[in-house]
Design a protein that fits this description.
The chain is α+β, with helices and mostly antiparallel strands. 39% of the residues lie in helices and 19% in strands.
Length: 581
């Protein structure tokens, strides 16, 4: 390494010599997405007994977030793992091990965090740790690397205290390591750096008559220029593209150029645009925020005025759509959405009215009105964000209703108790031969409320019936009917077993007949239809099911009974989704 002399009193210190948290929990970061709990257990169990391991994953995609938590039974084992497995290569990439801090203020505190740049390619995580460990307890240390495991030339060192970080800046800044003079300074978050001090200026609307010398003369008025660039279209420097860059020696000079540069007189009468230089990612994020604000303002202005219309025929254009809605009031704008590649109608459009009352009349008058091949679907237009939130809320409500419905028709499993029988604890042969106590069935009305595959039996558990058990129960009921008193009502023989598909069809029909609300009927049908669609297209099951539920109840029942027609309708819905993408 470099010719730097570290005092003898400041020898490298291991992380274990400092104060250790009471909890034996470790944070393991910089993991690849294919690292699993089993692999981490295999690595960390060599140090000591592991209590639990959890790889944090995305709640939707279940993809690893790149970090995990490893819990040991004792603090000593966790301390040993921190000393031996920090920077250990997992799947070819070095991991970063540190104590797990449950207090978020400790993790977000950047007071002891340092930024180190101009590092030599040979300096890795361990070498950077060895350089800074003499100055205090290090919570985290890493060198930024690319996909090829090559250093990007900068890194981060997070000390436990601000004093240790100040000492490291004083001793290491401007020191030479591996032939390069490193820079060490306090870490600043990206949002704190945005809009801060700058020296580079971006200029556009430069007249074509200006040369590079003219461009430099105009901007030398504001300060000393260290570099200047005027991109050209060819080898001729004067044939420029109309924009350029100017870098000043100080922030104050660059700020003066931004404030006064727009006042420079030009030959064509167009004012110059002068602003702080921004990276492409930063500029893209800024333009996206501006675009979102414009769309939000436009949506607020047309709130309750703009209508969404779908199920349009292919031959419906803007003028035809305007004629369809013109009878309800003044229309400010009409558009039929088309495929940008071939200009074919996508089957939906938007109609914006001048007043909210006219939009309300059109909404009530045109909803489900037969126009062409299909009845129109008319609703108030919503932004994508609002629509997404609405669909998420509907999905959560549907899940709650599904759980309530399942608890109503499929009672929860009974907790195991001594003397009770549970099918999952015994072989199927024993389950069929187990005798059933006579009179265990409730009255027939209560039995009919449950699907055939979950008839109540025994002392409160609900288990699938078997043919052997049913025959034994009938014989037992016959014997009891002879010996029982006259005033005792004989137990009712359970209904005969019918094929599962027809029984489910009758159950579903009776359930729908008991429900008077169309919305509730659609929810019940959606619960039956969604698993069938999910088998064919798991990713688009929710959207396809929602499209199929717009059909009549009788047609949906037909889809549940006919796999051929169901697959045909699923394919039609899939074609519509692909056309609208």
């Amino acid at each position: 390494m470099a010719t730097q002399v570290i005092p003898q009193a400041q020898l490298p210190v291991s992380a274990s010599s400092f104060s250790v948290p009471v909890s034996p929990s470790l944070y393991v970061g910089d993991l690849q997405h294919d690292v699993t709990e089993a692999l981490l257990f295999e690595i960390f169990s060599n140090v000591g007994p592991v209590s639990s391991i959890r790889v944090c994953r995305d709640s939707v995609t279940r993809r690893s977030l790149g970090y995990a938590y490893v819990n040991f039974h004792s603090v000593a084992d966790a301390e040993r793992a921190l000393d031996t497995l920090n920077f250990h290569a997992i799947k070819g990439f070095p991991c970063r091990v540190m104590w797990s801090h449950r207090d978020p203020s400790v993790r977000r505190n950047a007071s002891g965090n340092l930024f180190v740049k101009n590092l030599a390619p040979t300096i890795d995580h361990k070498a950077l740790y060895d350089i800074f460990s003499p100055f205090g307890s290090i919570l985290s240390c890493k060198v930024a690397i690319d996909a090829d495991l090559k250093s990007k030339g900068f890194g981060f060192v997070h000390f436990a205290t601000e004093e240790s970080a100040e000492k490291a800046i004083e001793k290491v800044n401007d020191e030479t390591f591996e032939g390069l003079k490193v820079f060490v300074g306090k870490f600043e978050r990206r949002q704190d750096r945005t809009g801060g001090r700058f020296t580079n200026v971006y200029v556009k609307n430069i007249p074509k008559t200006w040369t590079k010398n003219k461009f430099q003369q105009e901007f030398e008025k504001f300060g000393k220029i260290t570099s200047l660039c005027l991109p050209s279209n060819s080898e001729n420097e004067d044939d420029h593209k109309g924009f350029g860059y100017v870098n000043y020696s100080s922030h104050e000079e660059a700020l003066n150029a931004v404030q006064e540069g727009k006042n420079i007189s030009t030959d064509n009468g167009v004012s110059l645009f002068v602003d702080r230089f921004q990276k492409s990612s930063e500029r893209k994020a800024f333009l996206e925020r501006v675009s979102q604000n414009i769309r939000r303002e436009r949506a607020e202005k047309t709130k309750n005025l703009n209508l969404y219309v779908k199920n349009l025929d292919d031959d419906v254009d803007d003028e035809r759509l305007r004629e369809m809605f013109s009878e309800y009031g003044q229309i400010t704008s009409v558009v039929v959405m088309r495929d940008p590649r071939n200009q074919v109608s996508r089957g939906f459009g938007f109609v914006c009215f001048a007043t909210e009352a006219d939009a309300e009349k059109a909404l009530n008058g045109m909803r489900l009105k037969p126009v062409g091949k299909k009845p129109l679907f008319v609703a108030r237009a919503q932004r994508k964000e609002e629509r997404r939130i609405l669909l998420e809320n509907e999905f959560q409500t549907s899940m709650v209703q599904r759980m309530q419905y399942s608890q109503l028709f499929y009672p929860p499993a009974v907790v195991a108790q001594p003397g009770m029988y549970y099918p999952q604890m015994y072989p199927r042969r024993m389950h069929q031969q187990m005798p059933i106590r006579a009179g265990a069935y409730p009255p027939q009305a209560a039995v009919a409320a449950y699907p055939a595959q979950l008839k109540p039996r025994g002392r409160g558990g609900y288990f699938p019936p078997t043919r052997g058990a049913m025959s034994q129960n009938r014989s037992s009921n016959t014997r009891n009917r002879v010996n029982q008193p006259r005033n005792h009502q004989p137990p009712v023989t359970p209904a005969p077993i019918v094929p599962q598909s027809s029984q489910q069809g009758r159950d579903l029909t009776s359930i729908l007949a008991a429900e008077t609300s169309p919305e509730r009927q659609k929810n019940i049908l959606g619960e039956r239809l969604f698993p069938l669609v999910q088998k064919e297209h798991p990713q688009l099951a929710g959207k396809i099911t929602g499209m199929l539920l717009e059909m009549d109840v009788s047609e949906i029942l037909n889809l549940l009974d006919s796999p051929t027609e169901r697959l045909a309708k699923i394919q039609e819905a899939l074609d519509v989704l692909n056309a609208n993408q």
